[in-house]
Amino acid sequence: MINxxxxxxxxxxxANPVKMGAANVKIIAGQWRGRVLRFPExxxxxxxxxxxxxxxxxWLAPSLPGSRCLDAFSGSGALGFEALSRGxxxxxxxEPDRIANQHLHNNMKLLGASDCKIWAxxxxxxxxxxxxESFDIVFIDPPFTLDLWPGVLTQLEQNGWxxxxxYIYIETPKxxxxxxxxxxxxxxxxxxGQVTFSLYQRGxx
Length: 205
Description:
Helices cover 23% and strands 27% of the residues.
């Protein structure tokens, strides 16, 4: 477990800036439509594809404007920055990898995303303590090999990180047996290749 003093917001290094990686992803719609986000080749970093993102944000369209979003496994930042582009009020991003975190800062600066906070901490550490804020929309897309879903979903609920009627977006391997809290209601679910992507809404206990 950690406290807020240990989970300091990461700062952009100025003396030796990290070079932009070779890979990129494009924001689909909103104020930054067509802007390109560059990200490094880091183990476990698997950006959500354009087709999945288009479907997801069509699902979220009525609820996204003015929402408080958490991108718990930010990676390339594709989900979080897309949410901001489409009208989310604020975005918190968690990314412990130093190089990937640096690229998130670079992209935040490129977009002028003033309503974005980026923390250099693992999601399972951040969520392990009682919540200091609550989120309307949470994106859960961890590295598939680590099997972090059970712990992270429990922490989100038990530690108070979710607003009433919050939406939780989850990506898993195609045949993964996902277990969610009983009062989370499955709204939509689809498959794309070897990935299942689902949207839940938190109901009353």
